[in-house]
Amino acid sequence: MSYHVVAALSPVAYDYNGFVTSRQAHAVGVSNTQLKSMADAGILERVEHGIYRFEAAPGQLSDPTFWRWLAVSQGDRHGSDGVPPVIVAGENAAELHEIGDFWARGFAFIVTGRRFTRIDDVRLRKRAVEPIDVDYVDSIPVLTIEATLADLFLTHTDVSLIADAYADALRAGTITRPDRLEALLRPFATRYGLAANDGSAVLDLITPRKAAA
């Protein structure tokens, strides 16, 4: 395999945790035939149609989420309006933030425009996301912790599980915008028989209680 082909792909893969899409490869002059040759030679691993990973790249716990995000987004981290077109959401976002104890049965992404995927375990939800509600973990666009907690309410996750995730975030000191969290929780107040738009009361549902003395 030509050194020049590897040299062309390496900077792309470096920016994407060792992964590269066939579209990204084509953009730097590497053909499908060359990608296949590299895979046959053990230089690349084909993880999904159109998605490859350099065998020598160090693995990360986020890799399963990352390559699915890459497949759907084709590597666009920012979008034309500054909001990533594909954002990790729900239980997967909680796992990347290391809060809660979830057993995600797939990979959930919010898409801000029309997208589709053939990957069986990927679920796409189309809705708008504010720029302030996007963070990055291992270079993957993900809902902030505050937006993740609200998204768990949106998907009707058990309140006790959301409470555990919130408690983890409090212990880690990673709730940096409590006012934003209250604002994001307002739409769910009436679901629990609370006054309309009372985000503080919804937050109280998941706030850890101090043990009695």
Which residue ranges are poorly predicted, with pLDDT under 50 across at least 5 consecutive positions? none
Order of helix and strand elements from N to C terminus:
HEHHEEHEHEEEEHHHH
Strand order of the largest sheet: 1-3-2
Strand content: 15-25%
Envelope shape: elongated
- Secondary structure tally, helices: 9
Beta-strand segment tally = 8
* Assembly state (oligomeric): single chain
The number of domains: 2
What does the largest sheet look like? 3 strands, antiparallel
Label the structural class: alpha+beta
The gyration radius over C-alpha positions equals 20 Å
The helix content, as a percent range, equals 40-55%
Q: Can you give the mean pLDDT? A: 92
> How many angstroms separate the termini?
70 Å
Short description:
The protein has about 210 residues and is an alpha+beta fold. The protein has 9 helices and 8 strands.
Annotate the secondary structure layout:
Layout (H helix, E strand, L loop, with lengths): L2 H13 L3 E3 H6 L4 H9 L3 E5 L2 E4 L8 H11 L12 E3 L1 H8 L9 E5 L10 E5 L7 E4 L2 E4 L1 H10 L4 H14 L5 H8 L13 H8 L7
Parallel strand pairs: 5-6
Antiparallel strand pairs: 1-3, 2-3, 4-5, 7-8
Helix pairs in contact: 5-6, 6-7, 6-8, 8-9
